[in-house]
Design brief:
Elements (H helix, E strand, L loop, with lengths): L1 H19 L33 H21 L2 H21 L2 H19 L2 H20 L7 H20 L10 H5 L6 H34 L8 H28 L8 H20 L9 H25 L1
Helix pairs in contact: 1-2, 1-3, 2-3, 2-4, 2-9, 4-9, 5-11, 6-8, 6-11, 8-9, 8-10, 8-11, 9-10
Length: 321
């Protein structure tokens, strides 16, 4: 987690340098490694490699927010002060990316924490099912875009994606062929995967993503309090639960931002999913009876819930277009 937060600090600092060096005549500011801002006067910050897009950078920064909260609760006084500054830096970084999807992702992480902590299971399930519809309608009315044409361009891409799926249901149109069919990316990772990989591919991708989230949610709601046979095991279990909780909320940040971006195979997702899975495995080693979270019925349940996202978007498009 410290590695991610240190990386986030460097990226945000680099963004600050970029904006401070902004040249109105050139239309961009240069930072470390010749990284530069995009969007002209908007001065949207970037970094190097696959973080050269402000949306990718913003997604990573948002996913680091729960790590800061985790280290605040588990660290000493110095760590608490550092993490408070880190949280402030993350908020500043989200602002500098100029990404509306990133801002919505950050707000969703915070809202999800209080919602999950207070609400019952049925209310949370209803909220999760309504969220894709609300997000689609938000896009329809231009709530996350800079203009009406951008909003409807995004919705057109989503609608074309659903049509690709309907006409090629089993295997989709093929990996990397969405742009050939539509001309632009889908601006929605879920629609993008479903359109390109069909029922089989999306069931694997979406099912794996939702399975981890269901397992994490189950641990948060049902197994946070547990009396271990000895103090060492108790301390190990309590810390691992907190780690898993931080990763769970980090992945909420990914899932929300990915709803407005085509980042379905980004390295960031696989790294964080890998850490989340590893944390779940460590918890199961401490308490083998929790292995039920990966049982067959939960796998099929995850696939079904993943498809609920696609169905919800499709139904909302009928209203939004």
């Amino acid at each position: 987690m410290w590695v991610c937060l240190i990386a986030a600090w460097f990226m945000i600092y680099n963004g600050h340098i970029q904006q401070a060096a902004f040249d109105i005549t050139r239309g961009f500011g240069i930072g470390i490694g010749n990284s530069f801002t995009v969007g002209g006067p908007e001065m949207r910050i970037t970094y190097l490699g696959f973080f050269s897009d402000p949306n990718d950078l913003g997604m990573f920064i948002v996913m680091c927010l729960p790590f800061s909260v985790f280290l605040f609760y588990t660290g000493n006084i110095i760590a608490k002060l550092v993490t408070l500054m880190t949280i402030a830096a993350i908020i500043y970084g989200v602002y500098m990316t100029g990404s509306r999807g990133t801002l919505l992702g950050a707000m969703s992480v915070i809202a999800a924490y209080f919602f999950i902590k207070r609400a019952g299971a049925k209310l949370i399930l209803v909220g999760a099912l309504i969220a894709p519809i609300a997000a689609t309608l938000l896009a329809a009315f231009g709530g996350i875009t800079s203009g009406e044409s951008s909003a409807y361009g995004r919705l057109d891409a989503w609608y074309d994606g659903t049509q690709m799926l309907l006409h090629n249901p089993v295997f989709g149109v093929g990996m990397g062929n969405f742009m050939d069919e539509h001309g632009k990316v889908a601006h929605n990772s879920y629609i993008h995967v479903a359109a390109e990989l069909g029922v089989i591919g999306y069931s694997l991708w979406g099912g794996a993503l939702i399975l981890n989230m269901l397992a994490g949610y189950d641990l948060i709601k049902k197994h946070t309090d547990w009396q271990a046979p000895d103090d060492k095991t108790q301390a190990l279990y309590d810390r691992e639960i907190l780690v898993n909780k931080a990763l769970f909320y980090a992945m909420i940040g990914f899932m929300v931002t990915a709803f407005f971006l085509s980042r379905q195979f980004t390295l960031t997702m696989f790294i964080f999913m890998g850490m989340q899975t590893a944390s779940l495995v460590r918890i199961i080693r401490i308490r083998p009876e929790l292995a039920y979270v990966f049982e067959k019925r939960n796998i099929f349940k995850s696939i079904g819930l993943a498809w609920c996202i696609i169905v919800a978007v499709y139904l909302a498009l009928k209203v939004g277009l």
